[in-house]
């Protein structure tokens, strides 16, 4: 079977600074794949690149077999890729309901959308209570739920989440990951980026460790957790040995 | 009492014109952070269209004005502003100056700089009585038209799916694109709406002034631009309130300044503008999510 | 040591050489052309004045024409002969009516007066950034225009003020243009200007590292206003007459456009933008008059008014194809001094 998302030899640089070098990875349909690594490893750049926010200097990104790098931003979601960016970008001035409706911008099946919005409201009663309040007045955890729901309303094949647990209390983090796993159960493939490696490894099927712009280690999450070289790869200790 | 009604009508009709112009400028600014000085020429060219079609039925003439202003707005976006979308906002602003200059000079070159008289809606040039006071019908109609348009635009933005997309784009353009909002569509519609507003302003303004010349729209645009900044650049309610406010203050200064200070009326207005900015640099209603980029 | 200094000053020397060369050429040309070049050199003074603030701070400034107007009227009032002064301005205060200073004091006193005004109004306004600053400075220009245009006892109001001593010739203009460039260059080499440019790139970071942005901006604003004031005085004494209308929207946009077209982030950009647009204007004016094509007997000629259209179109094209201006914000010979530590190119 062909991969849903396949990346080969991806390189990105900002001016003289190289953010990603020779990154290759693959995400198959129905998987949860995590990319972990420390701050500045290039994780967000990778997602930005797939979403079309950043143009790669080299390499190929294929989604369902089509090369997608460097395409207009608004086409990303139409292909079936939804990005939930870092920092919970709700439209703070729009209401909760309007934020959810925006998630379905590309859809025409209005009745289905309305019932899906109702379903999310049932799932997160707080969103129902505050449906006409500006989204900016929600708490961090509530905003994260809203942004994920907004992403899902586009009916994506691939949901990408950037640091979904950043700044959230552990209990809320668990809720977020419960949601992610239930999303996968409905057939949506998930690619997520985390600094919180422990949490990500527990939910992901496979994990890539990214550091200083390159993939250092990859494998089934369960195997990686036990491996002695995991921490070294995560913290970049292997680089001290002169390997580059 | 008499004078108070008169002043209120003057203030609201002037403020309404400023508000509509400010909205046209604010719409563009909110979605692409462009302070479009060429908005003046949308008004001017629409007024020339009215002049060219004078004698035709009002519906015809006004439709012509709308077509001209909308087409001009969309064409300037395509030719001048789209290539600069990622440029420095200063550069975009200066580009809009040069577009404004270019159209003005073209008008001077092709039609001459002498004012041409027109009276697009003669039936409005009479007075009506409110109690004992005689008030210009044109001014009352101006107020009514402004109110209706503001309502219509609000409904469009609040109740339609495209309006929602425009508001999302105004708050965070990139995020809006990631939810599937089409950048070009939003921007072109913003320009078209701003052209439509300019055509209405041209009709009302030309009916008041009775003539058209190549710089007709410039003073209007400058005052309206100031109004959008006072109201809060990028905030549409701010633009409307800023426009009304400037209209009211101008009328009051005109009415109540001592006669020997009256020529300095606009100096007072602009001094108040500076004062307002010092107190609230982001305007009275700062737009959400607006990062200072200019 | 000496070599370092020369390398560091290379952009200044190059710009001065350019200005002097143009003046030398103009000295050999006919009177009309010479007058055009004088006007262009006066504009160089003003655009450089605008650059001192706008280029280093990155904040839009529409007030420079207002300061030109102030400088022009101050210089005129202080140096006009008593005869015409009494005729045009019968209501002047007695002391001012009696004052007749040497002509060359005009630009300097105009500059000084502008500096004082700029200090007073800049003190509050320099806290503003971005579009608020643009509108505030625009309002300043407007206030200058309205006040000067209606303060009939001091300025003659809407009537032209005539009989100014016209002493501004080619070499006076050249000397002032060189002086303005030298002042701007000396300023941009100071640590204040460096800090101000740092704030231009990232105001928050600059504030966090202890840079007092408002104060630095004020310094540049005052210096720039003074240079514009001198430019305005020269303009008045070049024309011989003063009209408030000459200090309104058109020149405001023209000066800003010259700077942006040249590249607002470098002094070279200011000078080059001014020269380029002046040259374009002149060529188009000639074409309107008609240029005979040598050897063919044909004459290239366009209808009057068409030159203005082409000028505006060309300015737009330059912006479209070079959004950072002709120079892209770089100084001429600016890379000689090595590391490029002075002019932070982006």
Main pleated sheet of chain C: 2 strands, antiparallel
Topology of chain A as a string of helices (H) and strands (E):
EEEHEEHEHHHHEHEHEEHHH
Give the SSE order of chain C as H and E letters: HHHHHHHHHEHHHHEHHEEH
Query: Hey, which two chains have the biggest interface?
Result: B-C, 43 and 40 residues
The best one-word shape of chain A is globular
Tally of strands of chain A: 10
Largest sheet of chain A: 6 strands, mixed
Structural domains of chain C: how many: 1
- List the total number of helices of chain C: 16
Please tell me the overall pLDDT of chain C.
89
- Computed CA radius of gyration of chain C, to the nearest angstrom: 21 Å
Q: Tell me the strand percentage band of chain C.
A: under 5%
Low-pLDDT residue spans of chain A: none
Structure classification of chain C: mainly alpha
Strand order within the widest beta sheet of chain A: 6-7-8-3-9-10
Strand residues, percent of chain A: 25-35%
CA(first)-CA(last) distance of chain C:
29 Å
What would you note in describing this structure?
The complex is a heterotrimer of chains A (244), B (294) and C (346). Chain A has helices spanning 43-51, 73-79, 96-103, 110-123, 125-129, 140-152, 170-185, 197-203, 221-226, 229-235, 237-240, and strands spanning 5-14, 17-27, 32-36, 58-63, 66-67, 81-84, 158-162, 189-194, 206-211, 214-220. Chain A has 244 residues and is of the alpha/beta class. Chain A has a six-stranded mixed sheet, sandwiched between helices. In chain A, strand 1 and strand 2 form a beta hairpin. By secondary structure, chain B is mainly alpha-helical. Chain B has eleven helices and four strands; from the N terminus they run ααααβββααααβααα. In chain B, the strands form two sheets. Chain B has a two-stranded antiparallel sheet with strand order 1-4. In chain B, strands 2-3 form a two-stranded antiparallel ribbon. With 346 residues, chain C is mainly alpha-helical. Chain C contains 16 helices and four strands. Chain C has helices at 2-8, 10-28, 31-57, 64-79, 82-88, 94-98, 105-125, 130-150, 152-155, 170-188, 191-201, 203-208, 213-239, 249-262, 267-289, 306-321; strands at 161-162, 241-242, 291-292, 299-300. In chain C, the strands form two sheets. Chain C has a two-stranded antiparallel ribbon. The two termini of chain C are 29 Å apart.
């Amino acid at each position: 079977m062909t991969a849903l998302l396949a990346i080969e030899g991806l390189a990105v640089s900002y001016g003289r600074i190289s953010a990603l070098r020779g990154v290759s990875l693959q995400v198959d349909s129905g998987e949860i794949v995590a990319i972990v690594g420390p701050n500045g490893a290039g994780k967000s750049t990778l997602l930005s690149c797939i979403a079309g926010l950043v143009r790669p200097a080299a390499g190929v990104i294929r989604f369902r077999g089509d090369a997608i790098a460097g395409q207009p931003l608004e086409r990303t979601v139409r292909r079936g890729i939804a990005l939930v960016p870092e920092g919970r970008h709700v439209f703070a001035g729009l209401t909760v309901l309007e934020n959810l409706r925006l998630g379905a911008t590309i859809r025409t099946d209005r009745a289905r959308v309305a019932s899906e919005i109702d379903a999310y409201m049932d799932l997160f009663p707080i969103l129902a209570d505050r449906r006409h309040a500006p989204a900016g007045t929600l708490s961090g955890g509530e905003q994260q739920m809203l942004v994920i729901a907004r992403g899902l309303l586009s009916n994506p094949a691939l949901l990408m989440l950037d640091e979904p647990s950043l700044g959230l209390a552990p209990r809320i983090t668990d809720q977020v990951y419960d949601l992610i796993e239930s999303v996968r159960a409905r057939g949506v493939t998930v690619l997520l980026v985390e600094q919180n490696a422990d949490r990500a490894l527990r939910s992901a099927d496979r994990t890539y460790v990214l550091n200083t712009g390159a993939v250092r280690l990859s494998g089934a999450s369960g195997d990686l957790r036990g491996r002695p070289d995991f921490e070294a790869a995560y913290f970049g200790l292997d680089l001290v040995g002169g390997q580059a | 009492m008499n004078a108070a009604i008169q002043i209120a009508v003057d203030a609201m009709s002037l403020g309404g014109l400023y508000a509509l112009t400010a909205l046209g400028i604010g719409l563009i600014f909110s979605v692409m952070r462009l302070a479009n000085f060429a908005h003046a020429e949308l008004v001017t060219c629409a007024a020339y269209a009215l002049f060219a079609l004078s004698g035709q039925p009002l519906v015809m003439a006004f439709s012509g004005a709308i077509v001209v202003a909308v087409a001009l707005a969309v064409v300037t976006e395509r030719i001048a502003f789209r290539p600069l979308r990622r440029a420095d906002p200063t550069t975009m602003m200066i580009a809009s100056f040069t577009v404004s200059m270019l159209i003005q000079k073209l008008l001077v070159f092709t039609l001459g700089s002498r004012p041409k008289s027109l009276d697009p809606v003669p039936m409005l040039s009479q007075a009506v009585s409110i109690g004992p006071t005689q008030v210009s019908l044109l001014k009352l109609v101006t107020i009514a038209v402004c109110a209706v348009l503001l309502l219509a635009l609000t409904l469009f933005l609040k109740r339609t799916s495209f309006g929602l997309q425009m508001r999302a784009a105004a708050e965070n353009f990139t995020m809006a694109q990631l939810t599937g909002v089409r950048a070009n569509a939003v921007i072109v519609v913003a320009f078209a709406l701003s052209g439509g507003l300019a055509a209405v302003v041209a009709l009302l303004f030309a009916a008041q002034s009775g003539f058209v010349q190549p710089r007709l729209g410039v003073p209007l645009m400058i005052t309206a631009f100031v109004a959008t900044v006072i109201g809060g650049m990028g905030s549409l309610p701010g633009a409307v309130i800023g426009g009304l406010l400037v209209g009211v203050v101008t009328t009051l200064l005109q009415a109540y300044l001592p006669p020997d200070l009256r020529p300095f009326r606009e100096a007072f207005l602009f001094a108040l503008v500076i004062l307002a900015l010092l107190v609230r640099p982001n305007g009275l209603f700062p737009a959400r999510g607006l990062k200072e980029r200019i | 040591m000496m070599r370092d200094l020369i390398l560091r000053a290379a952009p200044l020397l190059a710009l001065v050489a350019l200005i002097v060369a143009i003046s030398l050429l103009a000295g050999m040309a006919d009177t009309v052309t010479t007058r055009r070049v004088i006007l262009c050199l006066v504009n160089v003074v003003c655009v450089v004045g605008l650059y001192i603030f706008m280029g280093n701070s990155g904040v839009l400034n529409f007030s420079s024409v207002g300061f030109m107007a102030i400088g022009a009227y101050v210089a005129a009032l202080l140096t006009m002969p008593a005869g015409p002064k009494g005729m045009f301005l019968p209501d002047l205060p007695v002391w001012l009516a009696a004052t007749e200073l040497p002509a060359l004091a005009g630009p300097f006193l105009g500059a000084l007066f502008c500096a004082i005004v700029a200090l007073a109004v800049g003190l509050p306004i320099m806290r503003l950034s971005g579009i608020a600053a643009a509108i505030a400075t625009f309002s300043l220009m407007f206030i200058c225009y309205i006040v000067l245009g209606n303060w009939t006892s001091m300025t003659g109001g809407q009537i032209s003020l005539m009989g100014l001593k016209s002493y501004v010739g080619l070499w006076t203009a050249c000397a002032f243009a060189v002086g303005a460039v030298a002042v701007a260059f000396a300023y941009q080499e100071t640590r204040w200007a460096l800090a101000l440019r740092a704030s231009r790139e990232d105001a928050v970071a600059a504030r966090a590292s202890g840079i007092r942005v408002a104060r630095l901006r004020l310094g540049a604003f005052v210096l720039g206003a003074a240079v514009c004031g001198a430019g305005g005085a020269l303009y008045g004494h070049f024309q011989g007459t003063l009209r408030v209308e000459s200090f309104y929207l058109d020149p405001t946009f023209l000066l800003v456009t010259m700077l942006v077209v040249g590249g607002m982030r470098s002094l070279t950009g200011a000078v080059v933008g001014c020269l380029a647009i002046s040259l374009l204007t002149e060529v188009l004016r000639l074409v309107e008059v008609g240029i005979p094509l040598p050897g063919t007997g044909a004459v290239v000629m366009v209808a009057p008014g068409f030159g203005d259209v082409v000028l505006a179109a060309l300015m737009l094209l330059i912006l479209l194809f070079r959004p950072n201006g002709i120079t892209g914000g770089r100084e001429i010979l600016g890379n000689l001094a090595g590391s490029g530590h002075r002019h932070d190119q982006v």
